[in-house]
């Protein structure tokens, strides 16, 4: 026999499908979607992420977060008819992982009629992530991938004349970033934490519209709305400290719902007190940087050439 | 397709525990060995309803029920 769930707290008509522990709400599928969309709209407005005529590039990976973001922004676009939505993808060159994700991203863009551009680590940096991972290296694979991916997304967005780069960072990502920087004793690294991004010469302004949506809810949205998304883990995904922080925050959230929001809001407060100027230019590639050689040139070994 | 047989009325937890037997890859993404329960971030839907909206892991699984397990894999 089918289990009986309580009626939706919001519409008071349909059967609820989801219990939201941090608010106590029980929501049906439709109300869950609507509350998620409302929250993203509020976030976009609060952080003044877009202009009415923004050309927005969504950083699309083929995973649940970026596909949820693409779908939500595609629906939101109706409110801003002068704006444009495009997608940019990065092929890091991880055989058996990224190739599947790119096919999913392509299909999603085709369904929504969104133009998509893909750039690769090979064409931009001369090496694939598989080749970098196989190198004798001091840092974890994620350290290389994160830095190069950010640069690649920016390059792709700039080449498409986008004035905003929207990424699928969710509440869990944001809370983890705060905790990581606190645990490393370096909160000055939170100066770029503002989800609304900032204008920085040579860079497309990066915005994070899902920053107040828990990862469980981006996953549930993708599932409830039949979005095809990649479920395979990246083979290099084990970044020890972030994994520890993720596990800790998930356990705290289960015991004390709302913990991730509290950590995220603490991050916003800390970030507002540590603004840093980025006024230098990398002598090798010409990118804006706090000073000296930029991180991309350091990691790709260009600095040693 | 494998099938699992139960006597009596299994709960969501019973089904998960049996499902993970001999499937270490599933266990690694679904089960928190330190606390002996599913990872808190996993989503489980019984007949389209998230189990925390029912009776959690103690919810009974009926004969024709569908249990969907979504491991919230980081990245995306």
Walk me through what this model shows.
The complex is a heterodimer of chains A (305) and B (76). Chain A has helices spanning 29-46, 64-76, 98-112, 121-125, 129-134, 141-159, 171-183, 215-224, 240-255, 259-272, 295-299, and strands spanning 18-20, 25-27, 55-59, 84-91, 115-120, 164-166, 205-207, 280-281, 288-289. Chain A is α/β, with parallel strands linked by helices and 305 residues long. Chain A folds into two domains: 48-274, HUPs (Rossmann fold), CATH 3.40.50.620; 276-305, no CATH class. In chain A, strand 6 (164-166), helix 7 and strand 7 (205-207) form a beta-alpha-beta unit. In chain A, helix 7 crosses helix 9. The termini of chain A are far apart. Chain B has a single domain (12-70), classed as Ubiquitin-like (UB roll). Chain B has helices at 12-20, 24-30, and strands at residues 31-32, 37-38, 43-46, 49-50, 67-70. A three-stranded antiparallel β-sheet of chain B has the order 4-3-5, with no helix packed on it. Chain B is globular, with a radius of gyration of 12 Å. Chain A binds chain B through residues 1-3, 5-6, 15-19, 21, 26, 61, 63-67, 168, 170, 172, 215-216, 218-220, 223, 229-234, 237, 246-247, 250-251, 253-254, and chain B through 29, 32, 35, 39-41, 43, 45-50, 52-55, 59-60, 62, 65, 68, 70-76.
């Amino acid at each position: 026999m089918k289990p009986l769930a309580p009626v939706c707290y919001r519409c008071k008509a349909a059967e609820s499908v989801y219990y939201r522990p941090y608010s106590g709400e029980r929501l049906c599928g439709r109300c869950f979607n609507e509350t998620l969309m409302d929250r993203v709209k509020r976030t976009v407005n609060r952080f003044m992420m877009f202009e009415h005529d923004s050309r927005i590039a969504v950083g699309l990976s083929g995973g649940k977060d970026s596909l949820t973001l693409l779908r939500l922004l595609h629906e939101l676009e109706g409110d801003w008819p002068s704006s444009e939505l495009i997608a940019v993808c990065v092929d890091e060159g991880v055989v058996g992982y990224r190739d599947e994700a790119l096919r999913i991203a392509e299909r999603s863009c085709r369904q929504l009629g969104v133009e998509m551009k893909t750039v690769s680590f090979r064409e931009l940096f001369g090496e694939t992530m598989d080749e970098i991972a196989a190198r004798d290296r001091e840092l974890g694979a994620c350290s290389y991938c994160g830095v190069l991916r950010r640069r690649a997304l920016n390059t792709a967005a700039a080449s498409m004349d986008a004035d905003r780069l929207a990424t699928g960072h969710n509440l869990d990502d944001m809370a983890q970033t705060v905790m990581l920087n606190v645990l490393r004793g370096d909160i000055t690294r939170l100066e770029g934490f503002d989800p609304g991004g900032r204008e920085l010469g040579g860079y497309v302004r990066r915005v994070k519209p899902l920053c107040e949506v828990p990862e469980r809810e981006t996953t549930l949205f993708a599932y409830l709305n039949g979005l095809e998304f990649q479920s395979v883990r990246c083979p290099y995904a084990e970044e020890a400290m972030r994994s520890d922080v993720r596990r800790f925050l998930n356990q705290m959230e289960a015991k004390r719902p709302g913990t991730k929001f509290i950590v995220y809001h603490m991050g916003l407060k800390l970030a507002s007190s540590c603004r840093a100027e980025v006024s230098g230019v990398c002598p090798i590639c010409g990118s804006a940087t706090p000073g000296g050689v930029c991180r991309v040139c350091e990691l790709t070994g260009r600095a040693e050439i | 397709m494998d099938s699992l047989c139960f006597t009596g009325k299994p709960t969501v937890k019973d089904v998960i525990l049996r499902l993970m037997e001999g499937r270490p890859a599933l266990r690694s993404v679904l089960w928190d060995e330190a606390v002996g329960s599913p990872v808190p971030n996993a989503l489980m839907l019984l007949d389209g309803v998230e189990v925390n909206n029912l009776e959690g892991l103690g919810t009974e699984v009926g004969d024709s029920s569908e249990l969907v397990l979504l491991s919230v894999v980081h990245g995306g």
